């Protein structure tokens, strides 16, 4: 009788969990999760319990469902690629995490500007590795099914000898955060709205974590631009990693720290500062925690079956790179209050443009925020072509304009813009406000 009651309770619990999962999937319109029942859906506690029971590593993917970037890769991983599915189903406990609202930010630390990310952990919280890399080259430039599969195989090797390798894995977890979840972060905006029932309109995106960090740094006066050089690529030290492998060196830049340390194309990185490496993201994790000053990093790599460790000497400001792709840039102050696109040939036709000019067309002005109202009151209009900021001729994409604005101006300054409207040149100054 007791066994019958227990079974009925388990069936009821399973039904309730499935109903909850189906409700969230429906609200988010998460089509990639349909029919992918081998994933635990957005429930870490259930995942960890199952992983402990089966003695398997946990494979967690983080995906903001409404985001278009990385959608194809997400579909392949979630329910498309048979090799990934077979490996995940047979050897891991896979968890599909589709919101950041209740995620433990001490346990799950990664580059939150990514559109798709993965972490591999033990049921006790030990981190085996990270996967997912992005840059100005695009959201899919570094991710591949081939390298993800290899990363998963590397994780299984680490799991097979755990906890004997616990000391080597210790550095893969950083110090605890002063808060546990996103809603506890002092710099998080719109908390009342975001604390409601998760739907597409109030989902906490991964980049909102960095948004909140940036806001807190700015409000406390601690902000420095170099703080945005998060998770630098191995490219910054001269190593270009094969995106189809994740650990194999594809190319070494001449004269770089990697070249001076005599690393070579074809070498395979196994450890960085003693931490086992499963992917490019693991290398970034180690580099992220180094100072942006004179520093050293030790890279262990195999060549022709033999391993050797080499020390790279890093120069001051070695982390500097193109960060215009980062979503968390947009929330930094000052904000322009308007958005732009590169003007097309028809819009530039017969206009008095300087050589090399790539004017930005004002696509919209946000009248619902102070910054947008300030821009409109200063005379900016939809359809205007911005040719200069001060004396700087615009020759790049809108994201580069945004970075330039935030690097060179502060709230309280006036933004000098040169415009073309109906073929006539105009100059305005937009007060940058809170």
Please describe what this structure looks like.
Strands 12, 13, 14, 15, 16 and 17 form a six-stranded antiparallel beta sheet that branches. This protein has a five-stranded mixed beta sheet with strand order 1-3-2-4-5, with helices on both faces. The protein is built from 13 helices and 17 strands. Among the domains are: 15-182, Glutaredoxin; 333-431, PDZ domain (Pdz3 Domain). It starts with a helix and ends with a strand. The protein is 30% helix and 21% strand. With 434 residues, it is an alpha+beta fold.
Key structural traits:
13 helices, alpha+beta, 6-stranded antiparallel β-sheet, Pdz3 Domain, 434 residues
